[in-house]
Design brief:
Layout: H1 3-30, H2 39-43, H3 45-50, E1 60-66, E2 73-79, E3 84-93, E4 97-102, E5 105-107, E6 111-119, E7 125-131, E8 136-139, E9 143-144, E10 148-155, E11 161-168, E12 174-181, E13 184-190, E14 195-200, E15 205-209, E16 215-220, E17 227-234, E18 238-247, E19 260-269, E20 275-280, E21 296-300, E22 304-309, E23 321-328
């Protein structure tokens, strides 16, 4: 073979190798991305599953976690990856009803201390954060947005005032976000809009604010079934609440002075401001309270719902226990 022919073949071979390498690089760059996760399926699981809950849903009590520290009157609960958060009010001086309203109030302010208990997953107390100022000492229902826990602390009377707090779930640092007029006993962070939504005394009215406290909207609760006590955000732009109302007994059972507790759960659309589903819940705690009396949160996993509640005060029954109820549902086909 001539030197010229050899050089020609070598050049051709090198050219083929270079072209092949370049083609490999281009193919790698042009490869289609991995399929994106089905965010719709993930984000709407709780809403879809709760929409399948009805009065015939079978709820099983699967565990009780007793808290071995003073918890006073429990209000709201939230769960992060590392912590359990429980809000509670310690009453030092109970409020007293006025014979006639005074200064726009129907009762005295009373005295108390607002607590946000921070626990590990086993229920061991790690930190007791005191929240509130002056007559505002009553923490309400709370919400965890993935980074922060939102806590309203209000006067223990309607038509009063409240402070909205933000607690960093990792550092546990507390930030006073803003103050609002009126008693707000519950709050959620609408992660679709970045706005906060609160409910007033008895959940008769809702308000929406930006993070600086500017009120953006307010609306009346269209539902009178129960009073919502503790709520959570549900994608997309909904809130799921648990609550209670006290209804009078028959005269033979004591009449209005002997009420019974009606519990329930409801989902509200934060865009239309309508209740989209509500269901009664009549399971009872060790102390005899309906389970949805105050702290309430729910999760969904594969059409399996898990609800955690803590209805009993620290000084009644077996003390405060975090109760876990579970149910399997069959959502409607899409």
């Amino acid at each position: 073979m001539s030197t010229t022919r050899t050089r020609t073949l070598l050049a051709a071979g090198i050219a083929i190798l270079i072209a092949g390498s370049a083609g490999t690089v281009v193919a790698a760059q042009a490869a289609p991305p991995a399929p994106a996760p089905d965010h719709h399926q993930v984000s709407t699981a709780l809403a879809d599953d709760f929409n399948a809950v009805d009065r015939n849903t079978t709820w099983q009590l699967t565990s009780k976690l007793k808290l071995n520290f003073p918890t006073y009157h429990t209000e709201g609960i939230a769960f992060s990856g590392d912590h359990i958060f429980l809000s509670a009010v310690q009453i030092i001086e109970p409020t007293q009803k006025y014979a006639t309203p005074q200064g726009g109030y129907d009762r005295t302010p009373g005295k108390g201390i607002g607590h946000l208990f921070i626990m590990d997953k086993a229920g061991n107390l790690q930190k007791d954060v005191t929240l509130g100022e002056g007559d505002m000492y009553h923490p309400g229902g709370i919400d965890f947005d993935g980074a922060n826990v939102w806590v309203p602390v209000a006067q223990y009377r309607p038509n009063s005032s409240a402070i909205i707090y933000r607690v960093d779930a990792n550092t546990l640092s507390v930030h006073k976000q803003f103050e609002v007029k009126d008693h707000f006993g519950g709050i959620v962070m609408d992660q679709q809009t970045g706005h906060l939504v609160g409910n007033t005394w008895g959940s008769r009215r809702f308000a929406e604010w930006d993070l600086k406290g500017k009120q953006l909207a307010t609306w009346e609760n269209p539902n009178y079934f129960i009073d919502y006590q503790d709520c959570q955000y549900v994608p997309n732009s909904a809130m799921l609440c648990g609550g209670i109302t006290n209804l009078p007994q028959t005269p033979a059972a004591g009449g209005a002075n002997s009420t019974y507790e009606l519990g329930g759960m409801a989902m509200l659309d934060l865009t239309s401001h309508q209740v989209t589903r509500d269901v009664p819940f009549q399971k009872w705690s060790t102390a005899g309270h309906v389970a949805t009396r105050n702290p309430f949160k729910m999760t969904a996993d594969g059409h399996h719902l898990t609800m955690k509640v803590a209805p009993d005060n620290g000084d009644e029954g077996n003390g405060t226990e975090i109760l876990t109820y579970e149910a399997t549902v069959t959502p409607a086909a899409r």
